[in-house]
Here is the input.
Amino acid sequence: MLGFKLDVPKREEITLRPIYLDVQATAPMDPRVLDAMLPYYTDQYGNPHSRTHAYGWEAEAAVEKARKHVADLIGAEDKDMIFTSGATESNNMIIKGVARFHKEKKNHIITTQTEHKCVLDSCRKLQEEGFEVTYLPVKQNGLVDLAELAQAIRPTTSLVSIMAVNNETGVIQPLKEIGELVKQHRGVYFHSDCAQAVGKIPIDVNEAKLDFVSISGHKIYGPKGVGAAYVRRRPRVRLEPILSGGGQERGLRSGTLPAPLIVGLGEACRLAQREMAADHSRVSALSQRLIDGITSRVTHIVRNGDPAGYPGCVNLSFSYVEGESLLMALKDVALSSGSACTSASLEPSYVLRALGAAEDMAHSSLRFGIGRFTTEAEIDFVIDRIVGVVTKLRDMSPLWEMVQEGIDLETIDWSQH
Amino acid sequence: MSAPTRAQILNLYTATLRTARTFSSYNFRNYFVRRTKESFRKNSDESDPAKVLELYQDGLKELEVLRRAAVVNRLYEGPKLVVEKERLGRAAGLGGGGAGMEASIGGGGQPTGSQNVA
Here is the structure.
């Protein structure tokens, strides 16, 4: 025949990607950040700790420039910043480090029930080591009760750790008031996990009287696998390092610094500072559009958490709909029912339970994460899908039918078989 | 360097806008187009020549960044998003649609592997 085989490529079935509305789990990296990083992945590969040649110097200069950008974003000094592998490491390093350093005199730590898993787990680990931990409850809107915090502080308290923006509900804790309160007690340090807050709302370590802050790179459109910890130098706060080694980063975090990742984190912080106001107003508008769009067409929806929280995190519970079936039906939208670390299990979110949500409402929650790159068209598409799916699932639900008939579900005495 | 002329600024604006449109990712393309328009409009009533020069030089640097970023973005182009379906459908002559099409195109679904931390 022709002497060769004609390979006609089969027309591939078009697969379309779902819309990404999960920026609390991770955010897409800004293309400008990647552009800043690429030189350090290609030509400028030096070790920033090499002191004897130009490769090291140029990498060190880049790392120090990034350090300044990160510090500027939270009103700190360059030398206060320690680079880590992410907010989880920062949290571990700070909570365990402070507690262990002061263990001779102090054995008590205060945190809240709605903290991120890595804070709670670090505290649990310390409990095993003999420390006492107070897990403060939160009010129904997710905020910490300052009077309860004041009562919880003891002479043996070494650290108060309260997050800035909650990763599931977007609730913003009053860091300034908490800082004020904590500083009335000498020798009590104040730490805040600001992974979800930095670059999105203004954070100032001096205004909030913070001694420690945890920062994550990939939540602010930076690279994954890098973060930072703010450790105050004046007045000096001390902690026991977890990693031992070459003594990099003031001896608190040994190990070679990943220069490209740090350059990316620095660039992400620089952009965040420049774009914060524009991003915030944009995200607020989209968030309002989403809430109005859904609530105007579907009833029996509860917004979880303080409505004055960060607008980019909208947590809604849909009554009489099961959360997992909702997620399964919404295949065109990448959402999660809460934090990504717990969404694999079918357990209801502990954060929503701490807010006093009933079990069924905690089960039927969806978290909408709106970010810098979300568009109006995406929001409108999501509204349409949510409204369609919720209506369809409710039409199938016998509970919904009973509610429509005016039966109060609380009064039903379900028979046990 | 003295303050840029009106024509130079307009040139920078059209070049930036044109570059922004070359991103292959829907979200990045939309963001940079919108942001270019917004930031040039916001700074259009700036009258201080020193400030104008500074903004102009920043803009030139930004244009270079966007040019490179857009190239990289196109090199690793991924599948289109569901919101782009209408446009995609028209381009590929797939118009019409209906329920059947909806089902066949849905594809993707929820990402299966749960992302690590939130």
Observations:
- Residues 49-75 of chain B form the longest helix (27 residues).
- The CA atoms of residues 86 and 92 of chain B lie 10 Å apart.
